[in-house]
Amino acid sequence: MKNTCRALLTLLFVYAASVKLLDLDHFKNEMAAQPFPPAAAKILTYLVPLSELLAAGLLVARKSAGDRLALALMAAFTGYTGLVLAGYFSRLPCACGGILSGMGWGAHLIFNSIFLIISIGNIRAKGNAENLRKE
Question: What is the pTM of this model?
Answer without folding.
Answer: 0.85
